[in-house]
Amino acid sequence: MKLGSLSLFRQDSSRARPDRGNTVALDHARRIQIVAQLTSIAAVMALWPHVDNPLQLAAWWMGLTITLTVLQHLTRPLLIQHDGSPHDDIALQHYVSSAGTLAGGAAWGSLALVGPYHATPQSQAILFMILCSITLAGAGVIRHGRSASAVFIAACLLPLFILSVVSPPSALPEAGLWLMAFALFAFGVSDFQRGHETTPGTHLDGASLPETRQTLLDNANANAAIVLSRGNRVEICNRRFAELMNHNEEGITGRRLADAFESRSDWRRHARAASNTLRRGGTYHCSTRLQRHDGSAFWAEITGQVVDSGDSPAQIVWVAFDITDRMMATAREELVGAQLHALIGKSADWYWQTDTQHRLMHVTRHIDMSDDTLKRKLGRKWWQFHRPGRGARARQSELREAFENAKGFRNLTVELPDGDTAPLWLSICGTPRFDEHGAFLGHHGIAINVTEEVRRTERIRHLAYHDALTGLPNRRLLTDRLTQAISRAQRYRERVGLILIDLDDFRRINDLGGHAAGDQALLEISDLLRSCVRSCDTVARLGSDEFVILLAELEHAPAAEQVAAKILTTLHTPLAFQGSRNSLSTSIGVAVFPEDAGSAASLIEMADARMYRAKRRGGQRIESRDGAAASSPSSPAPDFIYR
After folding, report:
1. What is the pTM of this model?
2. Is 368 an active-site residue?
3. Among residues 502, 545, 596, 608, which one is catalytic?
4. CATH 3.30.450.20 region(s) of the chain?
5. CB within 8 Å of 525: residues ≥ 6 apart
6. CATH class of the region 347-457
7. CATH code of the domain occupying 466-630
8. Average pLDDT over residues 70-98
9. Higher pLDDT residue, 357 or 211?
């Protein structure tokens, strides 16, 4: 049922004017002022012959008139603002109404202080009649609440009560007690009058209302609990509300709305907020806890709207839904979120968020660490972190595709450079974020530091393709590079040279100095071989004393022999180990693509065969396609240009 259809509850089919209630209230205030003026004139005329100083009565009447006039001017801004709209400041209304009742009651109560009480017994009787009548009438017309009525009654009767206690009348010595009893009676009349106004009829139930209203309430949305109230009391409710409250409809009718709230403080807070909203012509929405008849509580979502603003107090319809299950589900989600946040707080991971453009906008490191490398990357995209190098472009494409697809991903590795220091490696898992309308907000997820795992993997990969002692490429890596070099040579019509080197007397070094001396000699030989070739060439170790040099991008075959001659001369230089100086004899085999072989394996076999031929011929020699050549420390190297 829509709130817009609640016009069926109105007394007439037309919508009431928004200022109708204010006009009625102003007319009511004017009538009260006129009656008060006439009553004050009658009181002065009745007491005038019995007092010694009638001017005091005239002064009292003048003061009462001024007080009533001031109160009238305060009433209008209380009800209507300058633009003609209702005033929505509830606190101001409360203060002004309380001050008005206090001032009005005090003005009438001061009549006992201007002389009539001590003049004659007749004046005392008239004074008692006037003030008791004013008290009873004022208690009947005050509509601001119990506190306002109590203030007015006390202000009217307090001076007379004090005088009757200090100086009791001779005709009625217990006048003070009678005044107290009358004050309680007047307060009861006021309370009964308010209850009579807010609850029309002696017993309201579904049968006393029009049948169409009751039918509309009972046949509304099955889950909607509907209450029609006037002021703060229930006029009628549907069966669903009675079921929610574990009560019957007759028992709820006439009760205060405050009785349905679990907490009085919640009731006062929502009552003030609802009054402000409804006075402005709006619809009030809230979620709060209501209390059933058996004392159990539940969560309810409440909507209120004024049905007929012309009445005073206004008629309001309230629609409530039981949302206990939804609130419990929300509470469970909040608990799970808090537990998850506490769990993340104990980890060493990063929590991150990106915006709709996939830029890193938020990073949280929950443990106390000084590492803020990731925070310094805010504003950039994850795939922009990788440094240029082998495999970087593939990783960038994988990351970019994962983010731009707006889907979840896991275990993607990101390189995080940090200036001149070693880079960090992170493994990120992410999931997309959406708002309540399904619009994409970005990704969020967890980043784990996997630097040690990456470095360990790189070390394992390095050991798989390099010699453990010298760090030179092994046979596997040499074969891979040789295959690539041959492919390039075929494309650009170049040559590839392969030089295979064997140390003839390396066993003598191990016998004389042990394996430690042999290892030191191998390291020194590796450095010497690197110094003999270009940076684009490859120096590899195949076995204990066998080395291979790959010469890529050669223009002429004799260039390989030139390098071999240089190596033969360089290695014949005495090596230093364990304080003695020794020189090595070397056997070298040279093969060139495409003259000697057409594949990597064939080229290696050809160079190996020529190396063994040089060894059989006594060593310290070079075997190539053009035949054998021996060299000594003093023999000159070929003068062919090697680039």
Report:
1. 0.44
2. no
3. 545
4. 206-327, 347-457
5. 503, 547, 571, 575, 584
6. alpha beta
7. 3.30.70.270
8. 59
9. 357
